[in-house]
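Progress narrative, work stream C.
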Amino acid sequence: MSNFNKVDFVTGMRRMVYAVTPNETYFERFEDVPHYINEATPFFWVCMIIEILISVAKQDRKYRLNDSFTSISAGMFSRLPMIILRSITLEGYVWVYRNWRLTELPWDSPWTWWLTFLGVDMGYYWFHRMAHEVNFMWAFHQTHHSSEDYNLSTALRQSALQMYTSWVFYLPLALFIPPSVFLVHQELNILYQFWIHTQYIRSLGPLEYILNTPSHHRVHHGRNPYCIDKNYAGTLIIWDRMFGTFVQEGDEVAYGLTHPINTFEPFAVQFDYTRYLLGRMFGLPGVVNKIKNFLYGPGWLPGKPRTGDIEDIPQIENPVQRYHVTLPSWLSVYVFVHFFVYAFGYQELMARKTTLSQTSVLVFVVYCLLNLTCFGRLFDNTKSAKLFELLRCALFLAGETVMYKSGWYGDKSERPIFVEGLRAFYALSCALWIPIILKSWLPQGKALLNSSVGGKKYL
C-alpha cells in the first residue's frame, strides 16, 4: 500500500518536528513501530513544493532543477540497498539487546522514553562528528554535503553506505533500552533534521540555545573556514555547546564541499571520494601513513594535524561559484516529466517490495539505478547520456513486454489503460533519441537530421 493517505496532516507535521508525546509512541514490539520516515514522504513533497513556490516568487534561485533532482536521486539511491538487505542498525541493536543487555527498562515508561530521546541524540552527535573527522566515514557522509544549494531537497541527499558506520554508535543503548523505544527515537531524530535544511527560517529566538535550528545547520553545511567541523547536532544543539564544536552563523554561508565534485551523476555523488581515498593510499609512504589515510580527517596529509589545517581550505569566491550545466528548455522538461513518472514507480516499488520475489526486486533495483544514472548524465549533458537514455527507454518497453507475457497483470488479456499510455510515452521517447544520437555520432546522420528538422540544433 502507498504511503499516501496513511497519516493525517496534523500528525504528519508534528512528527516532522518531533512534537509527539510518549503515550502515542509506546510500542511493546519493535515490529509494531510505524515506518515514520517512509510515511513522511508525502509531507516531504508538500514542504518542498511550498519552498519552491517561495523561491520562485522571490526569484532567488534557492532551487535549481539539476541540483534538487540530484539530491532527491541520492535519497532514492540510499533507500535501494534496504530493499534487498535488512537494516543493520536495527538488526545489530536487537542482537546486542537480546544477548548482552544489563537490565530491561520498561518500554511504556516516560522515564525510558526521555532517556532514549537524549541517548539517541547524543549517539547521533558522536556518529556525525566522527563522520567528519574520520576519513573512511567521511567517504560515505560527504554525499550529503555535496550539494551546493541549501534547501529542503538537500536533506534527502543521503549516502547509501553511511548506515554501515552509524549503527555502532547506538549500541551502548542496547544494554538497557528496549528496541521498540530506540527505533521510535532513531526514526524521529532523522525526521526532525529534514525541516532544518532551509534558508527561509532565519532564527527561532530563545530556542536557538537548545535546539538544532536552520541557522545552526546552515553553518554545518558551509565550506567557509569558520563553518568547517561545526554544529554536528541532530535535534539538540546542547551537545555542540558542551563539547566545543558550536559556532554561531556569521558571514554568508557558501554551501557544498571544499573541493566540489562538479557532477550530477549519482554514482559519482555516492562513491567518488571513496575512489579518491583508495587511490591516495597507494601514493602515501609507509604502512602507518596508509592507515592514517583512513582514520584521520579528510584534510590530513603527512606533516599536517589529524583533522587537517584550516589554512588549507580554499577561500570563498566572490561571487560564490556553483557547478551548473544549462540545458535546452525542452530537455529540462523532458527530464522533469520522466523523473516524475519514475518517482511514482519507485514509490510503488517501496510499497510493494514485500509482495515481490527476490528476483523481481533485484531487477527493479538495477533498473532504478539505471534511471538515476541516466538522469544524472542528462543533467551533466554528457555525450554518453543520449545513448544511456535510449537504452533506458528501450529496456522499459522490453521489460514491460516480459511482464505482460508472464501474466503480471493477472488474468486480464489486455494491458491496463495507464500501462498502454506508458508504453506509448516510452516509445515516443525512443523515437526522439534515435535521430539525436545519429546526429551526434554519425556524420551522415547529421545531414539526415538537418534535412528532416530544418537544420535546428537541439543539443
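Work stream C, second folded protein:
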Amino acid sequence: MARVIRFHKTGGPEVLRIEDIDVPAPGPNEVQIRVKALGLNRAEALLRAGTYIETPIFPSRLGLEAAGIVETVGAGVKGFKAGDGVSLVPPISMLRWPTYGELINFPVEHVVKHPEMLSWEEAAAVWMKYLTAYGALIDIAKLTSKDFVVITAGSSSVGLAAIQIAKMVGATPIVVTRTSAKKQALIDFGAVHVIAQSEEDLLSRLTEIAGPNGVRVVLDPIGGPIFEPLTAAMAPGGILLEFGGLSPEPTPFPLFTVLAKTLTLRGYLVHEIVRDPVKLEAAKTFILGGLKTGELKPVIAKTFAFEQIVEAHRYLESNEQFGKVVVSV
C-alpha cells in the first residue's frame, strides 16, 4: 500500500484527497520510484478543475513531475537499478502515468539520472519548465545572441527558465509581468528589461527597447488582448509561440499585422519534444549541461508537505509565487 493523491469530482483544490492504494510491481520497461518530491504545474490544476486537454476518469490521479529513488525495475529496463536517484520527464498523459504518490511506476524512457548537486526539490522542478522553454526557444525559434525575446508571465517557472536559457545563448530577454511588484526580483534574476503590463504601455515600451527592427521571438502562455501589442512590436518574419492560453478574454487574430510582417503565430506543446526521442535526447543534453555549469538553476518559490497538497494547489493558483511550487514527500 502507498499513499496517493486523487480526486473524485472536478473542482477547486479542496477536492484533492490523500488515499491508500495498492501499487503493482513495475511492468516491462517500467521503473518503480519511491517519490521524494513533486513539482506542481498549472496543467494539474486544470485537470483537477476539468478544463485540461485530458478528461479525468474518476477516481482520477494527477501529476507530471517528480524526483526520487528507484525502488525496483521491470523486465527489459537497462541503465537503472535500485537506489538510483532520478527525476522524471513529464509524460504525454498524466492520467496514464500520474506522479502524485509515494510510490509510482513510470516508463523508463522518461526517467533521468539527475545531477547530484540538486536537492530532491530542485530535481522535481527541472523538466517541465526547462523542456517547455527549450523546445520553444531553441528547438523551434532557434534563438541566437542577436535576438530580443519577449517572455510574458516572466515570474512563472517557465518564464524564469526561459530567462536563463535566453541568457545562456546570449539573447536579450524582455520580461513582461503584471505589476511592478516582482520587477526588481526579475532584474536581479537576469532579465535585461522588465515591463509591468498593467502600469506601462506595452507596445511603446517594446518599441523603445527593441528599436525599429522589433522583436523576433515571443514566448507567451497568456493569449487574449496582449496579442495585438505583442505582434505590433515584432520584427518581420518573427515568431510568437503560444503554449498556455491562460487569459479568460478572447484572443484577437491581428490579421493585417501578421500579413504585413509575415509573422508566424504558432501553438506549442512540450509534447513535441517529449514524444520525439531525438529531440528529447538533444534537450536533455542541453539542460543537463546547463545544470552542471550552473547557468540553469531551478528556482523554488515554496515547498509544502505532502499532507498540504490542498494548500499547495491554492498557492499554485494564487499567482503570488516566484518560481516553482514543490511538494516534499
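The longest helix spans residues 277-293. No further action is required on this item.
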